[in-house]
Amino acid sequence: MADNVGNSSGKDYRLDVPPKSGDFHVKGLSSCSWGMKNRLSRIFRPSSGNTVMLAFDHGYIMGSTSGLERLDIVIEPLLPFVDVLMATRGALRTCVPPATDKALCLRATHDASVLFEDMSVGGGAGLDMEDALRINASALAVQTFIGAQGERDSLELLCRTVDMGERYGIPVLGVVAVGKQLVRNARYFLLATRILAEHGAHMVKTYYCEDFEQIAAACPVPIVIAGGRKLPEDEALTMAYRAVREGARGVDMGRNIFQSEAPAAMAMAVGKVVHEGFSDREAYEAYLEMKNRS
Question: Which amino acids are annotated catalytic?
């Protein structure tokens, strides 16, 4: 029987060997169907292989969130600077112009609100595939709770969503949720990200931490990092820069964009890091320049 931390003697991540991508620019997904590859190509730019996702689905558990009080005012000015909108179907239908050309990653789960200590106890399917197709989703996001009380149910939901995604050509983003009782370190994220990928997630969202290059190497599908709590703009850009340099294929940022002093400038600067190879210092200078012009 396997032990609970993996094979302690086998830690050769071969960081000197780049991952094989076959004839497709998205890591580990060259065997997918044409339709799924088409959707993945809208998420991950073929020119860079990376993505900038704008997360504004916080209200599905937090209600009105600082910086997102008026979705109809906040989101539209940010659209030119991002590749993917990570949102609930309710937000998309009410606040995003249907003429947008951005890829849509739909939050496909409901979870316990912030009124509960353990958010994993209230999870379940938040929409069905027919509605995702009506909305023209490019991907579905499923929250998972490795190591929490709701682990089993969340993995079951991930597997069933992947089954539906494979049937209709829609990729699934497995989201690593970290509760208050879990430590955000490499040991945990090595466990959680690999579990999600092996259960069929086509891409994984997790947090940046020390030894991130090992996490990215051990995960056979693309990882995008969560922005997490609001940081000073220069620190958020440094986190994005380090993550991409160490193997992340992009970022899914929310509060570090829409709570910024200059949200559009911050979204632009993140894109410079993710797609154009800017250093964190160069991106921060670009942020300040655009902020001071506005």
Answer: 205
